[in-house]
Amino acid sequence: MEIPTQIKRIGDAWPAHNEVLCMLGVGDKIVATTTVAAQRLWMKVINPQMNQAVTAFDNAGVSLETLMAAKPDIVFMNLNNKSGPRIADLGIPVVQLTFNDFDSLKECFRLTGDILGGEARQRAEKYISYLDLKLNQITRITAGIPPEQKPKVLHIRRLAPLMVDGKGSIIDAWISIAGGINVADSGGEVSMEQILAWDPDVIILGNTALAQNGVEDGIKTMAEILNDGKWQRFRAVQQGKVYTSPEGVFFWDRYSAEEALQIQWAAKTLHPDKFADIDITQETQYFYRNFLNYDLSTEEATRIIDGRPPVQ
Questions:
Q1: What is the CA radius of gyration of the chain?
Q2: What is the pLDDT of residue 159?
Q3: Please, what is the angle between helix 102-116 and helix 170-177, to 10°?
Q4: Could you check whether the bond before residue 151 is cis, i.e. omega within 30 degrees of 0?
Q5: CATH 3.40.50.300 matches 146-305
Q6: Which end of the chain has fewer CB atoms within 10 angstroms, the N or the C?
Q7: pLDDT of residue 208
Q8: Do 208 and 254 form a contact (C-beta atoms < 8 A)?
Q9: What is the per-residue pLDDT for 216?
Q10: The predicted structure's pLDDT at residue 224
Q11: Which pLDDT does position 214 carry in this prediction?
Q12: What is the pLDDT of residue 219?
């Protein structure tokens, strides 16, 4: 594959990777994006160019006509995307990437930085150094926690149908790093009876689960769960240990560069006594200022941590 030496216009079919481009300093070059990325309101705040990018990709595939009209010099997409050959046949270079753990997340940054060249390489290494620092700081503590003292954690990615995240995923990786034990061996659809059998100590709902009824309805959905008799059978609900993952430029918990913040949030959520020194609000502001070139106010940082959209 030949990569253009001058990349001025970028198409990105992988929603999470749009954030990678923003962090590497080329968010203003995104001209074609996905339905999911176009719906990320915080991404539009830190990278207004997203308001001008056309939506050429969705769950059904790609609109070749829309993509060609955007004239991208290169297209990035997830490794599982089947549209790559069709785009390559148009003479547009296609780079397919993926990650499902922290090592492959770092390699995704490095490869993207190498392709973009210039300052993007330095930005990639700066992010990787930060991620490694936080991984080391957290695992230095959680590695010494006996298994019997680690809470059993269930991560829910959809409510209807009820679906969870299992082993071999980035979700399982951050649960483990944060000092928890993922009760789900495999991801997919489960029953309420299976959750009752697992009886998790902590339930974490991905923002994707709460967003099914609209972003602003997430808090209402959470309240309904806590007051629902079916859910009140679970120990985590009875003890008030049900949480929502934050959502910023992308979902912190799911294939996001903000996994660097997620591990800190999760560590403090699961072991508040051991991570009292983490101020997740200040850390979020630091991250956005240094990696996304945006100064969050305390109110904005709080909204992100609560999984809420920016004030319109």
A1: 20
A2: 87
A3: 120
A4: no
A5: no
A6: C
A7: 76
A8: yes
A9: 56
A10: 78
A11: 55
A12: 67
pLDDT tens per residue, range 127-162: 999 999 999 999 999 999 999 999 999 999 988 889
pLDDT at 212: 58
Superfamily for domain range 10-98? Nitrogenase molybdenum iron protein domain (3.40.50.1980)
Q: What is the 3-state secondary structure (H, E, C) of the chain?
A: CCCCCCCCCEEECCHHHHHHHHHCCCHHHEEEEEHHHHCCHHHHHHCHHHHCCEEEEECCEECHHHHHHHCCCEEEEECCCCCHHHHHCCCCCEEEECCCCHHHHHHHHHHHHHHHCCHHHHHHHHHHHHHHHHHHHHHHHHCCCCHHHCCEEEEEEEECCEEECCCCCHHHHHHHHCCCEECCCCCEECCHHHHHHHCCCEEEECHHHHHHHCHHHHHHHHHHHHCCCCHHHCHHHHCCCEEECCECCCECCCCCCCHHHHHHHHHHHHCCCCCCCCCHHHHHHHHHHHHCCCCCCHHHHHHHHCCCCCCC
Residue 122: CB atoms within 10 A of its CB come to 12
pTM, full prediction: 0.94
Q: Name residue 68's amino acid.
A: M
Tokens 């695992």, residue? 139
State how far the Cα of 58 lies from the Cα of 18, in Å rounded to an integer: 14
Q: Which residues pair with 61 in a beta bridge?
A: 58
How much is the pLDDT for 211? 63
Record the tokens describing residue 301, joined without a space.
Answer: 């940082």
- 13 touches 57 (CB < 8 A): yes
Q: Which residue positions in the chain have pLDDT lower than 50?
A: none
- Domain segments of the chain: what residues? 10-98, 146-305
